[in-house]
Amino acid sequence: MLVSLLMLCWSVDFFSSSKPTTVLITVPAEMINSLFLISHSGDIFLEKHWKSVISRSVCDYFLEAKEKAGDPENVAPVLQTPHHYLISIYRGKLFFLSVTQTEVPPLFVIEFLHRVADTFQDYFGDCSEVLIKENTVTVYELLEEMLDNGFPLATESNVLKEMIRPPTILRSVVNTLTGGSNVGGTLPTGQLSNVPWRRAGVKYTNNEAYFDVIEEIDAILDKSGTTVFAEIQGVIEACVKLTGMPDLTLSFMNPRLLDDVSFHPCVRFKRWESEHVLSFIPPDGNFRLMSYHVSSQNLVAIPVYVKQNISFLETGSCGRLDITIGPKQTMGKTVESLMVTIPMPKSVLSVNLTATQGTYTFDLTTKVVLWDVGKLNPQKLPNLRGSISIQTGAPKPEENPSINIDMKLQQLAISGLKVSRLDMYGEKYKPFKGVKYVTKAGKFQVRT
Amino acid sequence: FLRDYAALLSPAAFPPHRHDDLKEMLDSNKDSLKLEAMKRIVAMIARGKNASDLFPAVVKNVACKNIEVKKLVYVYLVRYAEEQQDLALLSISTFQRGLKDPNQLIRASALRVLSSIRVTIIVPIMMLAIKEAASDMSPYVRKTAAHAIPKLYSLDPEQKDQLIEVIEKLLADKTTLVAGSVVMAFEEVCPERIDLIHKNYRKLCNLLIDVEEWGQVVIINMLTRYARTQFLNPNINKTFYGSDEDEDEDEEEKEKKAEAAAMAKRKPYVMDPDHRLLLRNTKPLLQSRNAAVVMAVAQLYFHLAPKAEVGVIAKALVRLLRSHSEVQYVVLQNVATMTIKRRGMFEPYLKSFYIRSTDPTQIKILKLEVLTNLANETNISTILREFQTYIKSMDKDFVAATIQAIGRCATNIGEVRDTCLNGLVQLLSNRDELVVAESVVVIKKLLQMQPEKHSDIIKHMAKLTDNIQVPMARASILWLIGEYCEHVPKIAPDVLRKMAKSFTNEEDIVKLQILNLAAKLYLTNSKQTKLLTQYVLNLAKYDQNYDIRDRARFIRQLIVPTEKSGALSKYAKKLFLALKPAPVLESPFKDRDHFQLGSLSHLLNAKAGGYQELPDWPESAPDPSVRNVEVKESVRAVGTVTYRNTGAPRGPQQTEGSEESDSASGSESGSGSEGSGSASESEESGEVSVSEEEEGEEEEKKTKKRELKKAVQESERSPTHFEGFINLLFSRGFLFSVRFPSLNVDFYLFLPVEPAPSPQVTPVNNLLSNSLVTDLEGLSLSEAVLSPAVSRNASVFLALKSYELLHRITGEGLSVEYCFSRQPFSPDANMVAVQMQFTNSSTSDTKNLHMEDVKLQSGMRVKDFPEIESLPAGETATAVMGIDFCDSTQAANFQLCTHTRKFFVSIQPPVGELMRPVFLTENEFKKEQGERSFKVQ
Questions:
Q1: How much is the pLDDT for B930?
Q2: Which of A166, A233, B339, B902 has the smallest number of CB atoms closer than 10 Å to its CB?
């Protein structure tokens, strides 16, 4: 084993040093050569090659790194092996591992792999090992269309759906009975148009366009409750079911709030720059119209406060925990779906707590206390208190765990952003329009 | 299924007959059976099982009618053709037939599969197919041809020259569909042929925004390299005036720069308009949803933009930190490199790099790196406070990294050195050994800077040797004591005594330091330590590790004088106790920017195969005229209406068929027939390229002006050179044209050069020399002057678009709409006529409608509309006002007053309304051209 490792090291050196810098060596270049799907436990359950086949033994380097890293989140997304580069993402307890042999922008591959995972999610409802195994053929057909010779070809969900129909229960029953297929009979015209995100010939009896303005508060609060850092990130998720080729214009009451924006490719930059309106021909179905960041000058309203006291005793292997949550700046709305997550130090054995509202669980393997509070009642503040027991003999944990908060406030965009109107051009009918606002906690963390 | 699995599990059991059932199914004439068989075969391939023995049975179905069967057969074929070359040839004729199909999608798909079959014998067939497809009517087929080029190249590199010809041809393509794919082919086949880009440079810049995301990344990366070979370094002047950020350049480089700067000083730096074009056209892509595109633009700005402009990328990069952790990982690596060169740009976003306990360790460590790079005198206290919370983390690797970060802050920022040192000393009593060990290592480095002040810390650390087990930390302590034994004369020999006792059980690095300590003590305090040293040296003499034996022998020769020992022993003290420079703690990301940012090579800090070096800026700019294109080219290239840049909403593009008939102007074809005001639209597309000029571009504008003047003069000298004049205008970006296929006319637009110049000039008129202007002015005033056969004013057949000035609800019943009537405004020819329509939908009369309190940008003028005495309920009235926008798109703000209320309103003109369009048929144009009568506003 040692010898072979040495050989490998040597070959790495040889590989890099044998390449003169002045002479251009032509390497068969490609963006992505192969893709392997690897389960959480290290089982390679799907492979696809867009060029010559690369043996799956190349994954051993990755599996080794995975073993070393322990936590899958800590596996470096880019690994170098003697002859290949491995670029991977971790999504839905799966590793998407791509193999390439030459220089390629790593983000290019990472972004693409996430797009693949998004597509699976879109098609099968989730991106999991079971579902991918169940739909291997569809997965293969999708991968075939998404990449040509390692270069992305069709990544728009609308175009793909024209070529390969997503499976539904009804269709799979019909297909088994009749031998029908899930490959579209029509040819993908969307690919030809310069509005490639929208398929041609869309028809609905009810024409509707819904927009969800979803804002997330990212915050770090310190022990005393002072804000260390807070910002608002928002997205506008759209569900547009409109006949034909509608051309929409969405305008805001207060577009100046938006500090940094990124758009779906359908949005016309020019109109945004000059008038601060979103002008676009929408894709069909669900899509993310824009993401934005609210300018940091505006003070961020923090909807809840957390009074907490977590302490570990110096002697005796136990500690105390006492957490109370109350409303702060809720803008007159109710805080719902309140959830508190506390990752405990590894030496914690068990907890014995009582919650005045909701239920709590303690996961013995991950040592995470999860308190599902539900609705926050300002009259009767929820409280969780009790004792923590620690492994006997283990030293007192050095630090207190941080508290992560999840919550939801309906009908409110915490930044105050408001959609003023939606206009449609290009089609004659009157669509049904709707806008919904939600505020959630993003990465909302209280240090203790 | 079971049978199938059994066959897979023990292939040796039934070698010749396995998959018989599948073969049977494939041979049947039922599509459903074939499909089922193919699905099972593809599932085998997906699991990595060998299905190659089915090749003959599968390949027979290549012409199957069922589209799904056919697709799965293609999947199989591409996977196994390489192994079964002879059999694969059976399928070729099917694809050759497909290449001739009238349907573009079938042609494309045939080419795609054909080019994916890696069988050398069909190289000539592939070459022919690619060449034909490259001149196909359909842009989609041409795109597929571009994709096929690298496939053929990797199969047979001998074809390079022929393939370059195809690439050259496809690079000239004007459709967004092809652009990304052909540049990808260029990058893989002939990235060194930068000369092929010249003629296509401007077109690529202009098309960029409408190219699909993946193509954008490839084009931007390629253009970054291109720009580095063709333009001058925009930052060269500034380095000469002593920027604080580039301190660490070596002398030689500095001299070189100074020389270049001196040269530049003689000839002030003017940014090439093409350089500017690239920066301007890539900037909006920072708003892309695709992280790879954002990163590509960010690296382009980092490598190409003037220092003052690079800042815009920070916000976009910080935004990416919200994305998946893999994206964060890559972005943070690049940010870490950028923060070393351009710290200021990320300082406002300091807090965005704060670490959450839920971040993965590798992200935490990268964020820490960025925070450390961003630390300076003003923010260090905030950062240190933040670091204090990190030290308490459960994640020990992260804590160790934090301690090192504190060490780096302390060495870089003198003011906080003592604070940091005290903080670190406190950590020495931490319960976690790793934390203590890391602190020791860092303290050692800090103490080296001023040891005399801190003998108490050294004493404290000496005590730690009893408890601390981490080898690196023990070694560090021993080195410290040895180095500064004069500060701790009493303790040092005692430490050596203890170490001598445990010598045999120590790790190698610790043993080496024990030897070191012994040698130094022997030299300074031989009385007390002579025997101990001898003892240690003897132990080392028989150590298993030859490094240690070696070191012992070496030290003995140096310090223990014998008759044999050479002259060196005299200098032993100098050798061992020389003043050692304090170590420099620097970022591992220093100097990584010689790799193109965003690249794999940058991430790995090693050159990856196929990496193209980022060239150094040239000393003097190569000839910019290589990028000029002949007029025919530029008419289409520059004037192409793009989707994302168009301002007004408009009908969608025609999708099917239209591309076939009019492929070259594919993206323009939709605009002609739609009723939404195509004139203004096309003008807006022009606006993209010119009116977006930024403030700091005075220089560029001046040169443009000069060029224009020169051009006019030239054209005046010889009337026949009018066409040349137009060409020049095109190439310089003054003139834009849009083709309306339905009308078979070209529509020329003349765009103002600057948005809002000094008050007294209308720039275009002033720029044109007088004689030409007077010639032209007559033409521009009204259609009566032009012969009716020649011109039809746009307003004749285009519906005027009206805008809302005051909404019924805000106006309490009074609503006002306005439109640009596109008629000359008689009181003042320089003013644009604005026709306003007042509607009173309230229940009472509105009186004394007039305007007041007009607020304008300098140079703009307004002629009020005549006061409307009374507007009865339910009535409508119109009035005309004139505004001289002074060729800018600034809004005219004023108050609209009634007898009871005042409303603040503003009118902002679309650029198109500032110009007067003229339509000419080809013949008429030629006639006009002959007479040199060219109409401008």
A1: 65
A2: B902
